[in-house]
């Protein structure tokens, strides 16, 4: 526990407290604003991190605060507005039903407290597991990395949505973007088209802002109608505070479910929230209101989602493997700051990890108070018209990319990627395989070359050892599970 204490000492530095508050507030606001979310919030903040040369530990606190802060914000939007861009369907379904009955304040209170408890329990779980992870991750070599990355790709291809071909195309697009530039091993230029600006590849900030922020802005332009105005007054009474204690065991149970699911690559908070909701619904099948206004539905989805957001840092920091689009962006940001998540980082940079865990504990306390004090202000943010929101996003995107690269080519590439992202979304493609292919494409190539160099060119090294064999067995089980589902559909 000495490490955690030293982390608290580092976090309670005045500069870090200000940065943490800014990160949590930005995350909460981007989570609330329809169409923004954690990914776009982090993407828009990266140019400022680069421009102001924030130290890596400060930048990590800021970006992590945006990530789990946005999880709080999602619940506010889902409860107050039945919007098609809402990210938490189960929270929306139950929370909005309570709002229609005049209990918006009660639903928001349940969401805030469940978010806090879920995140708190997940951080405690991370702290508990950390000593046991060191001997496991220290056994990872190049071959194990290749097997793990391929396992993540299989999860994305077979379990992310239902369109295998679309996921495969998205993955290939991302890996193609990743190999642009000079090959460090052979010195060969790939897809540079004779442009010196592409010799070092396409910058991470350009890719993220183009694919996510600009693509989302183009989609928002299409929406001619905004969310409905919130007419009722949001109030929180003592009875609402007392009612939350009835759901303590549900929150603890769903937080554990979210913590486990969030630590698996290729899942994310939405998957964890949906799984916890269905399990809780099965346990309490007779306690749901006829109109769908289920309090347990809110606490289940929100606590599991926030717990998953915290546990997603375990594979990210220990193995350098992202489990979702948001953690993929965080991984790219860490690489941009010369932080290389993985076994060596997890073992050697323990002070930074303890500081991050301490910042999560403090940040969640901040978010709990923010939700209570400023909830009326946040509820008004949902009603910001798109004709104000979209130009702001576009201007910040252009300025952010130009600050990093100072070339018109970078602006052109961002525009191209934004249009590609828009077209992919219109054709019902997910951007998650694209960004995972971009982030993991280069590590896959590098680690595969190292593994083959160690084995003298023998591919069999990828199937040797307990970890490799376990990963391949898990990958085979995923494929068989998906095939079984397909067979059931055709029967």
How does this structure look, described?
The protein is mostly helical. It has 22 helices and 2 strands. A two-stranded antiparallel ribbon has the order 1-2. It is globular and about 65 Å long. Residues 84-89 and 288-292 have low confidence and may be disordered.
Structure summarized in a few sentences:
Residues 84-89 and 288-292 have low confidence and may be disordered. Strands 1-2 form a two-stranded antiparallel ribbon.
Count the DSSP helices.
Answer: 22
**Global outline:** globular
Biggest sheet descriptor = 2 strands, antiparallel
Mind telling me the C-alpha Rg? 22 Å
Write down how many β-strands occur, each being a DSSP E stretch of 2 or more residues: 2
Helix/strand order: HHHHHHHHEEHHHHHHHHHHHHHH
Structure class? mainly alpha
The order of strands across the largest sheet is: 1-2
Average pLDDT: 81
The proportion of residues in beta strands is: under 5%
Distance between the termini: 56 Å
Low-confidence stretches: 84-89, 288-292
Number of domains: 1
Approximate helicity band: over 70%
Can you lay out the helices and strands and say which pair or pack?
Blueprint: H1 2-11, H2 14-32, H3 37-51, H4 56-80, H5 89-100, H6 104-137, H7 142-159, H8 164-178, E1 181-182, E2 189-190, H9 204-222, H10 238-243, H11 248-262, H12 269-283, H13 295-311, H14 313-319, H15 325-336, H16 343-348, H17 350-373, H18 375-381, H19 386-405, H20 408-426, H21 432-455, H22 466-490
Antiparallel strand pairs: 1-2
Helix pairs in contact: 1-17, 2-3, 2-4, 2-17, 3-4, 3-9, 3-15, 3-19, 4-5, 4-6, 4-13, 4-17, 5-6, 5-13, 6-11, 6-13, 6-17, 7-8, 7-21, 7-22, 8-21, 9-19, 9-20, 11-12, 11-13, 12-13, 15-21, 19-20
